[in-house]
Amino acid sequence: MTPPRKRQVRLVVSLTLAVVLAGGLMYTSFSAADPALTPSQLVRHARVGTDVQLTGTVVKHSVRDLPGGAVDFALADRSGGGPTVEVAYSGSVPPTFRVGRELIVTGELKGRTFVAQPSSMVTKCPSKYSSAPSAT
Amino acid sequence: MAFAGRVALVLALSVALYGIVAALYGARRGRRDWVDSGRRSVYCLAAILTVAMVILEVAFIRNDFAYNTVANTSSTTTPLLYRAAAMWSSQEGSLLLWVWLLSIWASVATFITRNRLRDIVPYATSVLLGFGAFFAMLLVFFDSPFAQTHPAPTEGAGLDPLLRNPSMLIHPPMLYSGYTFFAIPFAFAVGALVVRRVDADWIRLTRRFALASWLFLGIGIVLGARWSYYELGWGGYWGWDPVENAALMPWLLSTAFLHSVMIQEKRGMLKIWNASLVLAASTLAIVGTFLVRSGVLNSIHAFGASTLGIPFVTLIAAMTAGSVYLVVSRRGVLRSEHSLDSMFSREAAFLLNNVVLVGLCFVIFWGTFFPLISEAVTGTSAAVGPPWFNRYTVPLALILVLLSGVGPVIAWRRATLANARRNFLAPIGAAAAMAIACYTVLPAHSSIGAVLLFCAAAFVVASVTQEFWRGWRARRATAGESAPVALLSMVRRNRRRYGGYIVHVGIAVLFIGVAASSTFQHEQTVSLQVGQSTHVGAYTMKYVKATGSVVTDPNHTGATMTLGALLRVTRGGHYVGTLRPSAGYYPASPIVPGQVVASLISGDAVDQIGLQSSWRRDLWAAIKPLGTTLPANGTQLPEESLVNRADASISPTWSATTQLYSAYWELRAIAAHYVASPPPASFTLIASPLVMWIWIGALIVLIGGLTAIWPAPSALRDRVRARYLARVAQELGRA
Amino acid sequence: MTALIAALLIAALLLFVLWALSAPFRRDAVVGAPGDTDARRALESAKEAKYAEIRDNETDYRTGKLSDEDFRALDRQLRAEAVVILRAIDELAARTSASSV
Fold first, then answer.
1. For chain B, which chains pass the contact test of at least 3 CB pairs under 8 Å?
2. I need a surface site. Which of B149, B604, B636, C100 has the fewest CB within 10 A?
3. Is residue B543 a contact partner of residue B529, using CB atoms and an 8 Å limit?
4. Within a domain: residue C2?
5. Domain regions of chain B by residue span
6. Do C21 and B494 touch (CB under 8 A)?
7. In this complex, do A7 and B90 lie within 8 Å of one another by their Cβ atoms?
């Protein structure tokens, strides 16, 4: 095989390999991903039994301590108002947890309550990069 | 004064636009004076933006709350250093910092190239000024840092306590320096492609700038990981968060560029790769800048929806389209001069290196943007988590580490069995020895991935040591210098090569730390009463006693009350160390009359990690002193009923100062009560091996990078040149 | 008071910018220097790059990454390329000095 032909073959083989691997990666990502929903979306398409990444703001007067370090609270959409979702959470709570703060928990909807995976809470850094003045 | 600031920004925009026109006109008409005027615009831009920065910083330092940005992010109670840093904690301030840094680096680049690359410079200047104009336009029309409110509020919102630590001072400017620096190789790559000149001169210049951006960005990434580990309460240093990934992607591509440009220098190959890598890395740097402020993706950093989405996406689209057009239309100039002789050669290893790094970047890109992709494809936004990322990045990282050991010792063009034996025997032996050690001496065989990585790291260290040894031996033989002098002069004469080798060792050490600390970590979140112990791996941690203190700080500069614990750590009965985790309670702003005591501690709480690091393992503890959660605002106040009683005992008829000092007195009593009879507290406890190796590895990488980027002393250059000149002249005479 | 400082600052900035950028308009600029200096610098850096290559080649040979024949062949080729560059530099120097006479 002449050198230019060899180069062409090599190029085609490696590109095909790359495309196949990338395709495999992309395909598996769809099944490996958890839907990211807001409380109103979760209420609308109540997906029982699948893991969901729930993002919302902690609702005022909804926080309740339970013995053993667990805590229950309700999440609403960032825009406020709309349906809220009750969350049962256990595990480490970041110190930045407070009413009005936006956070992400991963878990699944069991009945009417969202049971979060232990220590899956991520609170977002307090709002600073918005053009409008922040409320906190 | 704010008006002067606004004028400065408009002037900056005008100067940038003028410079673009002048430089391009001068390039088309061959008029040096117009090109020079364009170049001077870069210096003018830097000067004007410096003035704007100074005006804004002065406003922050003087607590001028008429400025909206000062009122939103600072307060009279913020300490001076953090007031100055608060300037870049807002969108408009950070944009100004970005474009100011860009103008400084652009001025440096313009100065360095004042007498070189005459055909490329006008186009590079226009691209740099184009970036400047874009950001100036954002600052003038979209989000001005000089917007004011009259009458001015008397107090500001204050800087969030989570941001009140030294990392906040360094991390953003360092990352921004890294991001903005990428504009320079981008500009010169575009210029070189436009005039169809991608020769040695361009390579030398671009490589230096790319190395600088690589170094800055790398430091920024490591600092971010350190901040996450030391300050945030989750005990990890990397979470595959979109903003972490946003900085990592351009870094990976520029790593690829720094390597494969060597092949272009030596063999005239991989030119299309190099041009594409430079352009892509810089475009991803802009994407990263956009991601951090866009609210487009769910992230620990993401904030409210930004108004800057459309301009940024337009810029990114323009950069991408322009880059693709340039590379495709100039592919004639980018043709390889040679082709690959063998799959077992240095050239092939570097090519594989490129492929792996780009592959890593693709995986991270896909995972980071997956919520948007899945929304576009399926209608629901879905996110992939760290397990998905780890599944694909870990094997790729393993191959990368292995390659970093193969690259330095493999032969050029065609590796024969003979020189393979000569070069690879020792490194393979080291890897085998490590494998044996993993199964015998260190009990580290529970994870095959970790074992493979340790072996790969041993391979790298051995091959680099071999390179140093051989080079040193050769130097001593030819130059007859003494041992230490030979080592130093060997490195000095070839800083790039040996600096690069040092970086490889640093990366290997860093990955050893990552592998060990992720695979063999023991973590627990547990609620403990005083006197109780728990087991974390081989360690026993006992909650010995509670601690508490109150700081009388009428200026509210720090945490008012700190509650914590003393943990005694033992292993096999022997005392190992003491950890003192605590939680600091900051005052809320403003202080609510009638609830002074509660206000003093119901601001954000900040974890103060109890940490004991040694080179063998880290013992990490975070505490959450449990108390009742205030339903009203969800803050967890320890001893809520005591706090309410204390507030009730402070009469609102007293003067503000008296109320305040009484509140401190009451808080002291509450803290003392907590120490005397503490309720159970929730602890997150981690015992993690070899975490320090990560930071040490990063430091080694930094040293290697600095070695590589340090310019060779000119005297040395002249001496070397003279010697070679003589030898080449000999042949000239013979020819 | 601050208004006065601000006004002076703005004026100073404007004047500075006008002075710095107006050279082409004033037409008292020097005619563009001959492109030869650029060419000379390009050749100089090509020469330095070539010397670095020769040095690197030697180091690679000493550390076992090149076989004997590969090294000798490459060394010969690189030195020949260096000679070409040196000749080009000499020619350029001769041309420039000739044209300035």
1. A, C
2. C100
3. yes
4. no
5. 1-160, 165-292+301-330, 417-520+693-734, 530-679
6. no
7. no
What is the pLDDT of chain B when averaged over all its residues? 86
Bridging pattern class, strands A113-116 and A85-89? parallel
Beta-carbon contacts of residue B577 (< 8 Å; ≥ 6 apart): B569, B612, B619
pLDDT tens-place string over residues B588-633: 766 777 778 877 887 777 878 899 999 999 999 988 876 555 544 5
User: Is residue B421 within 8 angstroms of chain C, CB to CB?
Assistant: no
* C-beta separation of B295 from A127 below 8 A: no
What is the gyration radius of the CA atoms in chain C, in angstroms?
Answer: 26
Nearest CA in chain A to B348: A10
Give helix C68-100 / helix C36-62 axis angle, nearest 10°.
Answer: 160
CA dihedral defined by B195, B199, B203, B204, rounded to 10 degrees? -120
Positive or negative: CA dihedral C27, C30, C35, C41: negative
Contact B304 A104 (CB under 8 A): no
Specify the residue for token string 């493979």.
Answer: B452
Of C32, C63, C87, nearest to B32 by CB-CB distance is: C32
Instruction: Report the 10 Å Cβ neighbour count for B380.
Output: 16
- DSSP for A25-74, written as a single string: HHHHHHHHPEEEE-HHHHHHT--BSSEEEEEEEEPTT--EE-GGG-EEEE
What is the average pLDDT across B673-680? 86
The band of B85, judged by pLDDT with boundaries at 50, 70 and 90, is: confident
**Domain B1-160 indexed as CATH 1.20.140:** no
**For the segment B706-729, what is each residue's pLDDT rounded down to a tens digit?**
999 887 665 456 656 666 777 777
In one-letter notation, the amino acid at residue B295 is: G
The alpha carbon of A76 is separated from its chain's Cα centroid by a whole number of angstroms, namely 15
Task: Compare B342 and C98 and report the one with higher pLDDT.
Answer: B342
For an interface test with A, which of B228, B366, B384 has the most A Cβ atoms less than 10 Å from its Cβ?
A: B384
Using CA atoms, how far apart are residues B310 and B256, in angstroms rounded to an integer? 30
What lies within 8 Å, CB to CB, of B344 at 6+ separation is B410, B414, B415, B420
Interface touch B604/A62, C-beta < 8 Å: no
In a domain, C58, yes or no: yes
Gap between the Cα atoms of B662 and B651, Å rounded: 10
DSSP B386: H
Chain B environment of A32 (Cβ under 8 Å): 384, 387-388
B300, B378, B583 ranked by CB distance to A122: nearest: B300
Domain membership flag for residue C42: yes
Q: Is the pLDDT confidence value at B637 over 70?
A: no
Is C93 among the domain residues? yes
Q: Which two tokens stand for residue B721?
A: 């040149």
- pTM equals 0.88
Q: Residue B227's pLDDT band (boundaries 50, 70, 90)? A: confident
Q: How far is Cα B69 from Cα B157, in angstroms, rounded to an integer? A: 10
- The answer for B320, left when phi > 0, alpha when psi is -120 to 50, beta otherwise, is alpha
At least 3 CB pairs under 8 A between chains B and C: yes
Q: Can you point out the beta strands (E) in B276-417?
A: 382-383
Q: Spelled out in words, what is the top-level CATH class assigned to the domain A36-123?
A: mainly beta
- Can you spell out the DSSP letters for B655-720? -HHHHHHHHHHHHHHHHHHHHHSPPPEEEEEEEEETHHHHHHHHHHHHHHHHHHHSPPPHHHHHHH
Domain boundaries, chain A: 1-33, 36-123
- Residue B522 and residue B582: Cα distance in Å, rounded? 21
Report the number of secondary-structure helices (H) and strands (E) in chain A: 2, 8
Per the CB < 8 A criterion, the answer to whether B100 and B53 are in contact is: yes
Residue in A closest to B142 by C-alpha? A131
State the SS3 of B129-193.
Answer: HHHHHHHHHHHHHHCCCCCECCCCCCCCCCCCHHHCCHHHHHHHHHHHHHHHHCHHHHHHHHHHH
